[in-house]
User: Fold this.
Amino acid sequence: MKPSALRRLLLIAAGTAALAVWVPLGATAKPEATPPQGRDAELLASARKPELVSVGKEIYAGLCKACHGEENVQGESPSNLFDTKWFHGGKPTDIERIIALGLLEKGMPAWGEVLPAEDVTAVVAYLLSVQPAAPRAAE
Ligand code: HEC
Assistant:
C-alpha cells in the first residue's frame, strides 16, 4: 500500500471512531422530564418527611445560615434559598448537586466532601419543604 493511501485509510478510521462517539451522545440527550421522576421525585418525597426536614433545618442553622441568612428571608438574590428563584438550577437534583459539589469559584463550599449523603439529602429536603410552592412539612 502507498503511504498516501494508508494515511487516507487512517483518516477514515479516525472519522468513523469520532462519529461512533458523537452519535450515541446526541441520542441519549433527553428532553426535560415532567412530572419529576427518579431522584427528583425521591427528593420531593423526602421534603414531606418531618424527621428528615428537621435534621436538614438543624444542618442549615449550623452550616448554611452564616452565609445564606435567616430562614425564610425572601428576595431575588442567589444567596437566598427561600424563594422560587434559583440561579443555578431549581430542580431538586440541581439543588442537591450544588450543595454536594459547591460553586467553588463563587465561594460556596462543596458540602459533599464533609457531610454524609443522608445529610445532604436532609438539607435538600428542608429547603424544598420551605419553598413557597412545595407542600410544607409539619413544624
Ligand atoms: C461560606 C459561605 C457559604 C456557606 C457556609 C454556604 N453557602 Fe451556599 N452559596 C454560597 C455562595 C457564595 C453561593 C453562590 C451565590 C451566587 O451565585 O452568587 C451559594 C449558593 C448556594 C446555592 C444555589 C442558590 C441558587 O440560587 O441557585 C444553594 C442551593 C446553596 N448555596 C446551599 C447551601 C447549603 C445547603 C449550605 C449549608 C450546608 C450552604 N449553601 C452553605 C456561599 C455559602
Residues 3-137 form a domain with the Cytochrome Bc1 Complex; Chain D, domain 2 fold (CATH 1.10.760.10). The chain is about 55% helix and 0% strand. The pocket of heme C is lined by residues 59, 63-64, 66-68, 78-79, 81, 86-88, 95, 98-99, 103, 106-109, 111, 123 (CB under 6 Å). The two ends are 79 Å apart (CA to CA).
